[in-house]
């Protein structure tokens, strides 16, 4: 046998290379939506036998085939859906509460999203980690029957331990508690918070892999970036804030988070429950997971929609909603994002809006927590500025907020960044809010950063040394994976 292998090993290696390369190339050809992406991956696979196919298996697969809506199978949830259907917004209520042209944007959302616009919602904005974690811990301390938490990062630091201790205390009171942390995000602190929670009796798991034994292939490049906390089925938290100490204290990084009540809580719960069920196989059948809407009448309150995005059947939903918003804008588009690396479609939509006379202001941090991303962003600024967009570098502490306001009439908030990872590789959760007062509130939050920002000009970009600009462009090439 050893003689046979020593003689024919090149033939076996060639056969393995052909099989792996053919399978990988066919998968890239059939699944990639962008022709340049498909051609690029096929080139890598063909020019790097075996290695190219392995790289594609680790970093190239951007779709996860999984069954969803697991949380909605029970008769109890179907009964709740009948109650929630009363809050679905019809054309008459929508026209009464919003501007006419936003009807076209709602139509876009109705076609690309799997959740309706509902009335009867309330939302509160928190502008600091201190306020957010205080509010979270207060709700957890008052919980009576069920807590479901999904997050990207849950550090084992003073803030992480504070939230963990609240969850453990709730579990000891008899509250059902389930916590899902992304397998990559769980590695941000060592040792992981997962063991601490498990030792405290909390049901806990890592999304898309195990913290100790590695990530799940071929989906290792796909992550849950969602931040969802649902307490007792009637109050939820959502936004951009992870659970970590860096957002607290006098020198804290900034972020924006939100507490919501109303029918949209059921949609947020369903999203997190699906992710938990995918990872663990467990459903949510018991009375501890009951959902309630008990404080607002249909037609009252804010009009909200949960926007679910991810590398599954919800691929690029967030991008489609934003494209629709940019197309209906008449006066202003204000964007605040820590990682602004839009693809050519989103960049073109912003440039087109600016050419139509819409004021487009984009605020990014002066000092980014990810230096490579900051350099890659520089490479995209010049064409946008030439087309009339204004880009601002916000001074002061790093701001992790993801905020978008159109015409001071529509707001978009949540976990999505404006980069390829959030648009195609991450599982994200956002809210679109059709309410002028709330849009102005978010606009004021953006304006406070705008007041401390400096304008990025073509002259300042072009005056940088050539090697710096080349470095920016090289990193820009890798932007889909930063």
Give an overview in words:
By secondary structure, the chain is of the alpha/beta class. The chain folds into 3 domains: 2-54; 70-303, Endonuclease, Chain A (2-Layer Sandwich), CATH 3.30.870; 317-481, Endonuclease, Chain A (2-Layer Sandwich), CATH 3.30.870. 44% of the residues lie in helices and 20% in strands. It has 17 helices and 20 strands. The chain has helices spanning 2-31, 35-47, 51-60, 75-84, 91-97, 102-112, 129-142, 158-172, 193-199, 264-280, 317-328, 344-355, 371-386, 420-425, 436-450, 458-462, 466-477, and strands spanning 118-126, 146-151, 176-182, 203-207, 209-210, 214-215, 223-224, 228-231, 235-239, 257-261, 302-309, 332-336, 340-341, 359-365, 390-394, 403-406, 410-414, 418-419, 426-434, 453-455. The chain has a 16-stranded mixed sheet that branches. A hairpin with a 3-residue loop joins strand 5 (209-210) and strand 6. Helix 1 runs antiparallel to helix 2 and helix 6 (102-112) packs antiparallel against helix 11 (317-328). The chain is globular and about 75 Å long. The model is unreliable at 69-76 (pLDDT under 50). Its EC number is 2.7.8.-. It comes from Rhizobium alvei. It is a multi-pass membrane protein. Residues 220-247, 395-422 form the PLD phosphodiesterase domain. It is found in: Cell membrane; Secreted.
Write the layout of secondary structure elements.
Elements: H1 2-31, H2 35-47, H3 51-60, H4 75-84, H5 91-97, H6 102-112, E1 118-126, H7 129-142, E2 146-151, H8 158-172, E3 176-182, H9 193-199, E4 203-207, E5 209-210, E6 214-215, E7 223-224, E8 228-231, E9 235-239, E10 257-261, H10 264-280, E11 302-309, H11 317-328, E12 332-336, E13 340-341, H12 344-355, E14 359-365, H13 371-386, E15 390-394, E16 403-406, E17 410-414, E18 418-419, H14 420-425, E19 426-434, H15 436-450, E20 453-455, H16 458-462, H17 466-477
Parallel strand pairs: 2-3, 3-4, 7-19, 12-14, 13-18, 14-15
Antiparallel strand pairs: 1-10, 1-11, 2-8, 5-6, 8-9, 9-10, 11-19, 12-16, 15-20, 16-17, 17-19
Helix pairs in contact: 1-2, 1-3, 2-3, 6-11, 7-8, 11-12, 13-17
């Amino acid at each position: 046998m050893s003689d046979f292998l020593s003689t024919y090993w090149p033939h076996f290696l060639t056969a393995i290379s052909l099989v792996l390369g053919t399978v990988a190339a066919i998968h890239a050809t059939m699944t990639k939506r962008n022709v340049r992406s498909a051609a690029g991956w096929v080139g890598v696979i063909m020019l790097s036998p075996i290695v190219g196919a392995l790289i594609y298996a680790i970093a190239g697969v951007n779709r996860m085939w999984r069954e969803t809506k697991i949380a909605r199978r029970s008769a109890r949830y179907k009964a709740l859906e009948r109650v929630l259907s009363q809050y679905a917004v019809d054309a008459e209520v929508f026209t009464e509460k919003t501007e006419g042209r936003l009807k076209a944007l709602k139509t876009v959302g109705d076609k690309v999203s799997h959740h309706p616009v509902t009335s009867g919602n309330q939302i509160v904005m928190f502008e600091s980690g201190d306020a957010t974690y205080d509010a979270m811990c207060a709700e957890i301390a008052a919980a009576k029957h069920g807590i479901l938490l999904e997050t990207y990062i849950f550090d084992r630091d003073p803030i992480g331990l504070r939230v963990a201790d609240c969850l453990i205390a709730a579990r000891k009171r008899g509250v059902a508690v389930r916590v899902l942390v992304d397998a990559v995000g769980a590695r941000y602190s060592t040792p992981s918070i997962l063991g601490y929670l498990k030792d405290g009796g909390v049901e806990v798991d890592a999304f898309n892999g195990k913290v100790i034994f590695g990530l799940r292939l071929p989906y290792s490049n796909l992550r849950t970036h969602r931040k969802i906390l649902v307490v007792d089925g009637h109050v939820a938290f959502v936004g951009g804030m992870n659970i970590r100490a860096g957002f607290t204290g006098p020198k804290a990084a900034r972020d924006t988070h939100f507490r919501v009540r109303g029918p949209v809580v059921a949609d947020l719960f369903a999203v997190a429950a699906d992710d938990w069920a995918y990872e663990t196989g467990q459903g949510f059948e018991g009375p501890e997971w009951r959902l309630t809407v008990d404080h607002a009448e249909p037609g009252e309150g804010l009009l909200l929609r949960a926007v679910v995005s991810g590398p599954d059947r919800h691929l690029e939903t967030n991008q489609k909603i934003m494209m629709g918003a940019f197309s209906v804008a008449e006066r202003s588009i204000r964007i605040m994002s820590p990682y602004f690396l839009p693809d050519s479609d989103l960049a073109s939509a912003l440039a087109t809006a600016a050419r139509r006379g819409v004021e487009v202001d984009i605020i990014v941090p002066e000092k980014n927590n990810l230096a490579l991303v900051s350099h890659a962003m520089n490479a995209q600024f010049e064409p946008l500025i030439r087309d009339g967009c204004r880009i601002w570098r916000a001074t002061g502490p790093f701001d992790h907020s993801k905020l978008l306001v159109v015409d001071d009439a529509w707001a978009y908030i949540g976990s999505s960044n404006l980069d390829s990872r959030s648009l195609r590789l991450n599982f994200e959760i956002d809210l679109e809010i059709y309410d002028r007062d709330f849009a102005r509130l978010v606009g004021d939050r953006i304006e406070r950063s705008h007041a401390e920002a400096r304008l990025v000009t073509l002259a300042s970009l072009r005056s940088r040394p050539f090697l710096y600009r080349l470095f920016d462009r090289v990193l820009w090439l890798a932007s889909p994976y930063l």
